[in-house]
Amino acid sequence: MTDDRIRLYGEPRWISPYVFSSFVALTEKDVPFEVVTVSLDDGENRRSEYRDRSITAKVPALEHEGFCLAESGAIAEYLEESFPPPSHPRLFPEDLRARARARQILHWIRSDLSALREERPTTSMFYARATKPLSPAARADAENLLRVTALLLLPGATSLFGDWTLADSELAFMLHRLLLNAHDVPPAIRAFAETQWKRPSVRTFVAHERPPAPPKS
To answer: 193 in helix, strand or coil?
Structure first.
């Protein structure tokens, strides 16, 4: 008999933006699931059982009815098609072009802003704050992040496309690399990010208990 439980494989510290994306997507779809932690530090993702099931040995991975899928972007698309609206809440906008724009933002967040991600890592969001000023490259990334958000956000809006989408949560997560490290953020963008940060699915992830920070080498 096929095990029909949904499992999300994540990392033990609950700081990965990619695990965040899949956790929020599953929570918003309102389907029951369990989280199984995989320690990257201990190489558990490279053990044959997990590596071969996930194909790429990446975290997160989703397991559903015997099918295992890694990569958060692919997981979001799979969930949208496996648990489609209107029976389940949407992860992407209904309008074709808005949906394409949301996907553009999700792909951009994953593929760009590398200097900002390196200098304001998620450890600086959930553990000790960053202390060094941003390098020129990271400042350029921060400025680009704010520019893109300003272009997408209508005056007074606290979501990008009217109704919530996964792009709102992921963009707010990225903006909190700045907000939680005391960087200046324009009021309208701050209001957007802070509103999204209060969403129940997001708060469940953000407030989850975490182990102590590992000692610095």
So the answer is: helix
> In this predicted model, what pLDDT tens digit does every residue of 170-217 receive, in sequence order?
999 999 999 999 999 999 999 999 999 999 999 999 999 999 876 553
Fold of 96-204: Glutathione S-transferase Yfyf (Class Pi); Chain A, domain 2 (1.20.1050)
Sign of CA dihedral 51, 117, 110, 175: positive
Closest Cα to residue 28, out of 124, 128, 164?
164
DSSP secondary structure letter of residue 161: B
Q: What number does CATH give the domain 7-82?
A: 3.40.30.10
Mind listing the pLDDT tens digit for each residue in 128-181? 999 999 999 999 999 999 999 999 999 999 999 999 999 999 999 999 999 999
Beta strands in 27-108 (DSSP E): 34-37, 61-64, 67-70
Hey, where are the domains in the chain? 7-82, 96-204
* Burial class of 3 by CB neighbour count within 10 A (0 to 12, 13 to 18, 19+): exposed
Q: Where are the alpha helices (DSSP H) in the chain?
A: 17-29, 48-54, 72-82, 96-111, 114-119, 123-126, 136-152, 166-179, 187-197, 200-206
Place of tokens 């949906």: 99
Q: Residue 137 and residue 113: Cα distance in Å, rounded?
A: 9
